[in-house]
Design a protein that fits this description.
This protein has 287 residues and is of the alpha+beta class. The protein has ten helices and ten strands. The protein folds into two domains: 4-147, MutM-like, N-terminal (N-terminal domain of MutM-like DNA repair proteins, Alpha-Beta Barrel); 157-281, Helicase, Ruva Protein, domain 3. It has helices spanning 4-13, 29-36, 47-54, 104-108, 143-147, 157-165, 168-171, 175-179, 190-199, 213-232; strands at residues 22-27, 58-65, 68-74, 79-85, 90-95, 110-116, 121-126, 132-136, 270-274, 277-281. A hairpin with a 4-residue loop joins strand 3 (68-74) and strand 4. Helix 1 (4-13) runs parallel beside helix 10 (213-232). It is globular, with a radius of gyration of 20 Å. Bound molecules: zinc ion. Residues 263, 265, 267, 282, 284-285 line the site of zinc ion.
Length: 287
């Protein structure tokens, strides 16, 4: 699943579509079938109103909050937003021709095609279809944004991180589950949680209340360090993540513990399921 660095890189790579107008929207049969079965596959709005709202609007800005992208779109009469989550395997492509998408799997699983006024297409593909897309006039109306902690780059992020972890809600939780909660810090998923906990020498299973302020502060540092390193390496490509140009990131070659057998010091790693996700850790390096 793409985490903050991967979504940030997608946002940056989508910059060429800013100031272009969406002239047409086509939705896949998977979406139509899902909606007919009452499942609201990918597009969470009513399909006809989604198409009506989006068509004819200019993409004025693309932003990111946590693992969500949002497109500010407007015409003379209305300004609104498309909020987009890549789920497990969502990917965007900007192409002149649909056949320019090189990988068969992404080509086969296209879900939304936005035609742009320069003749290019912005294609959203999603193999496993856990992604989501919906429109919101105000981003304040979208509950996950209302609850989300400041971005790690925000000056109040560290204070918010420490204060929130000291609240009752998180005291008894394993620290790994806590840092994967967007109310604590946005955008940490399974990979960067395991990596940052290793670098901070903290066991992922340890309860938050049993970790000192100093160590939690250190953990915050390691999370930002891992994010920055991943951004500089083009993100992690585990299975389905692709950049907008179809490229793969290199961060997976820098993993210390995620999907590894041994830690960098040569100790055998343990794995354990925390909050339904498998985690990797070293019982020698992490306490
Ligand atoms: Zn170790």
């Amino acid at each position: 699943m793409p985490e903050l660095p991967e979504v940030e890189l997608v946002k940056q790579e989508l910059a060429p579509v800013v100031n272009l107008t969406i002239t047409d929207v086509v939705l896949s049969n998977y979406i139509y079938k899902g909606h007919a079965a009452g499942k609201r596959t990918i597009v969470k709005d009513d399909l006809k109103s989604f198409i009506d709202i989006v068509t004819g609007k200019m993409i004025a800005h693309i932003g990111r909050r946590g693992k969500y992208l949002y497109f500010l779109i407007s015409d003379e009469f209305q300004t609104t937003h498309i909020v987009s989550h890549l789920g497990m395997s969502g990917a965007y492509f900007i192409v002149s021709d649909f056949d320019d998408i090189k990988e068969a799997n992404f080509k086969k699983h296209w879900q939304v095609i936005f035609t742009l006024n320069n003749g290019q297409k912005l294609v959203y593909s999603d193999i496993r279809r856990f992604g989501e897309m919906h429109t919101h006039d105000s981003l304040h109306d979208f509950p996950p944004f209302a609850r989300m902690a400041p971005e790690y780059t925000d000056e109040f992020s560290r204070t918010h991180f420490l204060q929130t972890l000291r609240s009752k809600k998180f005291a008894e939780k394993p620290v790994k589950a806590a840092i994967m909660d967007g109310e604590v810090i946005p955008g940490v998923g399974n990979i960067y949680a395991a990596e940052s906990l290793y670098l901070a020498h903290i066991l992922p299973t340890k309860k938050v209340k049993n970790i000192s302020d100093k160590r939690l502060s250190e953990l915050f540092e390691r999370i930002t360090e891992v994010f920055e390193l991943s951004l500089s390496r083009g993100g992690s490509t585990i299975s389905d993540y692709r950049s907008v140009t179809g490229g793969k990131g290199e961060m997976q070659h820098s993993f210390k513990v995620y999907q590894q057998d041994k830690c960098p010091l040569g100790h055998e790693l343990k794995t354990k399921v925390i909050n339904t996700r498998n985690t990797f850790y070293c019982t020698t390096c992490q306490r």
